[in-house]
Specification:
It is a single chain. The protein has 164 residues and is mainly beta. It has one domain: Immunoglobulin-like. Helices cover 13% and strands 49% of the residues. It has one helix at 3-23; strands at 38-48, 56-67, 70-81, 92-103, 106-113, 123-132, 139-149, 156-160. It has a 4-stranded antiparallel beta sheet, with no helix packed on it. Strands 5-4-7-8 form a 4-stranded antiparallel beta sheet, with no helix packed on it. The termini are far apart.
Length: 164
């Protein structure tokens, strides 16, 4: 067997072993969530399958901070890949996160952010919106992730996150 074929076989075996061992770890083990005095929080996780590229593992934490008369909805988007994904080119045509604060299902504020998910194998992005109100009942934080997987021909997906 030629040296090139032996190296190719060894690299392929390493990728399989590395992928298997990293996929067993959950994204939440390496990523951050809500901290401090939030009044409510929830974690959402998902793996997005990418054609011909390593899958992307997502964990999105939604946090509602309640300081008497002031509410802040926070979204923390964390991503990682079992194998370096940036070497495979753009994973998404676009990817963005939206967070909003509601009172009795009426939006009071919202914020949209665009994490650099194509430019790094893993990372996180925190974004938020704030709302001042005297009434403290019926307030929640919600969010969604909107993305278009590059080269899958299926268009946009919307992942409605579980809110508080």
């Amino acid at each position: 067997m030629s040296t090139i074929r032996r190296l190719s076989a060894a690299c392929a075996a390493l990728v399989v072993v590395t992928s298997a061992s990293l996929v067993l770890a959950t994204p939440a083990q390496a990523m951050e969530g809500c901290h401090g005095n939030e009044s409510d929080s929830v974690s959402n996780s998902k793996t997005i399958a990418l054609p011909g590229k390593p899958d992307v593992n997502l964990v999105v934490n939604l946090c509602l901070y309640d300081e008497t008369g002031f509410y802040q909805g926070v979204s923390i988007v964390n991503w990682g890949s079992s194998v370096g994904g940036t070497a495979f080119g753009n994973r998404f045509n676009y990817f963005y996160s939206v967070v909003w604060v509601q009172k009795n299902d009426v939006n009071k504020c919202s914020n949209t952010a665009y994490p650099d998910i194509n430019g790094s194998d893993g990372g996180s992005l925190l974004h938020s919106c704030s709302w001042d109100a005297a009434n403290t009942s019926g307030v929640s934080v919600d969010g969604k992730i909107v993305y278009d997987v590059a080269n899958d021909g299926k268009g946009a997906y919307t992942w409605q996150l579980t809110g508080t």
